[in-house]
């Protein structure tokens, strides 16, 4: 990858795939001379299931969301890859960045009040930790509000 390649890391939970999120990714790719898009789908689980090490359902759901968004992006002509990440979205991003850097992180969440990620300060923590732009996208009924 050259120095002008946009390396976009997208972390999305149950908001994925959202048509608005796909539109934002498409816009980023169109503006760059070259782009590398990676999706991280955290394996979200209830606290009870996590306590009993019952993660199979969470992994399957995350894998399904990941495959669906990658397929939608490819239909739009965007080459994308991804992985299922840790249930903690901050750790999922850290793991992804340990493998390959990003020039931008897109975080897609539910609206305030419906998003555990926002309650835990995910966007602020990512901004404070990594020296790249972090864009927060709020998904609501298939629309994305930046």
From TrEMBL:
Q: Which domain of life is it from?
A: Bacteria
Q: Protein name, please?
A: Universal stress protein
């Amino acid at each position: 990858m050259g120095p002008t390649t946009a390396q976009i890391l997208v972390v999305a939970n149950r908001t994925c795939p959202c048509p608005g999120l796909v539109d934002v990714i498409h816009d980023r790719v169109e503006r760059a001379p070259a782009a590398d898009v990676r999706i991280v789908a955290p394996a979200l689980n209830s606290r009870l299931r996590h306590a009993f090490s019952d993660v199979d359902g969470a992994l399957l759901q995350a894998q399904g969301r990941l495959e669906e968004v990658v397929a939608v992006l490819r239909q739009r002509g965007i080459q994308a890859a991804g992985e299922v990440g840790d249930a903690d979205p901050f750790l999922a991003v850290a793991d992804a960045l340990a493998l390959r850097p990003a020039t931008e992180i897109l975080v897609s969440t539910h609206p305030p009040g419906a998003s555990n990620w926002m309650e835990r300060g995910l966007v602020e923590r990512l901004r404070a930790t990594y020296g790249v732009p972090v864009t927060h996208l709020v998904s609501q009924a298939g629309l994305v509000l930046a």
